[in-house]
Amino acid sequence: MLNLLSRTLLAFALLVVSAAHGAEVAPLPRFTPDDVEQLTIAQLDTRTATGDLKAQAELGARYARGAGVTVDLKKAVSLFEAGAKRNGANAQYYLGTAYSMGVGVKQDPKQAARWFGKAAAQGHAGAQYSLGVMMATGEGGLKADPKKAADHVLKSAEQGFVLAAFRMAQLHIAGLGVARDTERAADWYRRILKTQDHPPSTAGLVVLIETREATWQPGDPINQPPPLAKEEAPAQVAEIAPPVMTGPITAAAPDTTLSLLPDEQETMTSFKTEQGPTIEARTRAGALTLFSTSDKPLSCQIGVTFSYLEKDGVRTPGTFLCFQAAMRVGQKVQVCDVVNRNFVQTKVEKIELTKCSTLTP
Whole-angstrom distance between the N-terminal and C-terminal Cα of the chain? Predict the structure, then answer.
């Protein structure tokens, strides 16, 4: 189920039930791909002709990716549409992704939300995650509802969808739609790391332990830090109030090239705004992590524009949209993770904060 446009969407991004603290953290369930992913094009054609919905969606995926066939987005979308109308969850998810990205069709967030909703209602993990992402900020005509959005993401995470599990960790860090609980966030990171190597989760867990927002446990990817002299007061939970800013807050980037090589030394770069938060970008273990400090309690959507992403000597521009992030006065908080082992060099051109709302204690 996790192929096609979902992989395209995540090309360089990589973008609430856990064990009680102190207990053994269970790994995520294994996310099992459909058996049709192992079939040849000829076999998919044959099974599609018999009405096999999964084979039809997979065949569309192959045409969209150019896997074993020449890329044909028109044919891919046609296959998705045919399967979606027959209530095929995979086809509905792929069609929603196509509308979300404007691949093979005109970009249409409302259509994306519609098809994600239909697939999510059938328990499709990718669609549950995508619907939750859109619902968090009210995209595609959906009513913005952080709690319902988190519920959709949680359902996806419980099926082993790694992106959803990673998002659950960040939602608990920010306190968006769920209780702010950094120990639970750490456990989500641990559940991911028990199933696979995932640099963003490694970086996120290390940050929580280093900043004393999560308690170190044996097996964590960091040595146990020394005990504090005295306990620190827990952070206050905040709720989102109506929007207070309309235009974007733009942070221009310094002339700095960042490396995403897994073994590269850690670097930290600051991005200052004329008004609003300061953003710091840290590269470490192949991940680019953004932190913010603010003189105002804000919740903003963060967009990162790369002037280039370099792979095999070829440079291409790129963008990445983080979800809504909470920023509190006097606190340095983690707000976004971007990772891609394929792109080893990158340059951030600007960071934009939009859809900003006040946070009230």
Answer: 41
